């Protein structure tokens, strides 16, 4: 008989192909598929939003229903099923229309927020109840589907209470008459045995988002007030879902090794550096992957010409010409073309760009930007385009096709981020021979090797990096990159080809996750086995 494959259930609040607001969806849509390709038995679970029903691969009902208490109310739900695009990985959806089917972009209604009349964003006031329901629905789904994973892999604050619930269900099964009673239903012996064997892994994609709610939402969770203390769920008088996951998960990952270290410091930890430092032995950094089935210049259908590392000069020249034509810029093949595809928010270093662009645009170069976000940065970029006609191209919005064309046509890709848990654009840029220029933080520091003289001579350099978050440091690095591009074309070509030869595929990331899963199973879990305190 063959060995039974490791079984994983991946819980996330959004998954590419069905619902997406950011990088979490890309990971949730790619990592389970890569794990399945390595022989793991994977399934995914997420909420059934309104947009899910109109996906290319809409789900169908399983006929399974359930009810869970949210405070004093019993809320019913049901389970739907589909498969991840380009795979046979099953994905299950938690249907509860009042909680999840309110997203309507035309009305300014998103997955987690709605738009105010002044254009600002505000979280839905019942987000705590919505994602308490999701977490408890995941546990119901495991029982109803008889899908008991070896590893329950939960993501970000929306799923972070799952390790807490598993801990409490184990405690409910163990409790004696003299112990603290649990408000959670005591599982039957068979279910309790299954729960006892589930290991939990929490991935933090961006620690700035924690799921912090007022303390009077504690009864909605069904968890005992004894957990509302500074070592577990309490955070400055509020409930913190992510903190609960950090405390109770068997293991924790972030989306790059550097970010795993950074969030244990006051500057990057967003108030949770202390609890993270206490769990430091259980924190691992694994860089996200790039989906080369979508992001590969050799097969990209959006490009004016396809190319690989051997044809990068010729291919990129055609793509650059097409991009210049799209933006009505002078079609000059040797004028450096700088590209940026980003959310236009503080995190992405737009203030550095604004303070530096006037200086470098005095030179004969071009800049194209695609993105949307803060109106302040919209105005800043519109002003740059007006002041430097023929040198600045701008698209305010989202455009997947144009994002590929910028990667294919630009010479240099800008990512001067304040912080960047992982980043994906620099991975795409490496593959496309579009040399990334990054601030050495988080995943950017882990994936881009600065083009110092020593690294260039050793054939290790893949881009340009700076550390001080200052306009001067950013501008100096831009000038350093432009000098290499203009004065040393052969060295620039070698830099491009070294970057294109890197492997940042999801298979590499999945191999690291698989190794960690096996380690968790072998060790039998951490705090979730017996619980803190």
Write the layout of secondary structure elements.
Layout: E1 7-11, H1 23-37, E2 41-47, H2 50-53, E3 60-70, E4 73-83, E5 90-95, H3 97-100, E6 113-115, E7 121-123, H4 127-144, E8 151-155, H5 156-159, H6 162-174, H7 189-196, E9 199-204, E10 212-214, H8 218-221, E11 234-235, E12 238-240, H9 241-248, E13 251-254, H10 257-262, H11 273-278, E14 283-285, H12 312-326, E15 337-341, H13 350-360, E16 366-371, H14 375-387, E17 392-396, H15 400-409, E18 412-415, H16 425-431, E19 435-439, H17 442-447, H18 453-457, E20 464-466, H19 471-487, H20 489-500, H21 506-523, H22 527-530
Parallel strand pairs: 1-2, 1-8, 2-5, 8-9, 9-13, 13-14, 15-16, 15-18, 16-17, 18-19, 19-20
Antiparallel strand pairs: 3-4, 4-5, 6-7, 10-12, 11-12
